[in-house]
# Entry
Amino acid sequence: MDARIELPSIGSTQVNDPDLSIFAWVYYDGNTGTNGIWGHGNSAGNNCHFEAYSSYTRIRLGSVSITSLPVLPTNEWVYIGFTSSNTTHKYFVNGELTSTFTGNTGGILGPGGFVHCWGDSNAPSRPWNGQISSGKVYLKALTAEEVGQNYNAQKQKFQK
# Structure
């Protein structure tokens, strides 16, 4: 991705502990620092970040921050994402569940003043270094079966 892509605001009120799924095919070039895949937030600390670092992958959902996720492989396409339903959050790689964690997120989706974007996670200080394709945001928690179906439907396009 050459630049970040901003999306319109989702809804007119803050949503606490929403059902949410964010998935994309990503090609990570392995640069150091913070590499934002998806970002959303405002100055009040209500945010949702999905980031790759050289030593781990991070998901931050409001007050829940998970930094123990595996490092993304470099120089290959990977289908990654997470689901969030109330206080249960799941991380998937290539259609497979790799981690489950719990916690109250607080407000992670909200009204104007919030930035929603692909290719950056902190408007614009954490640009993605690589490529992002087929990014999708669902206002529901996908099932493991749905995640697997989405992965299988596109894997031949990305993984040869």
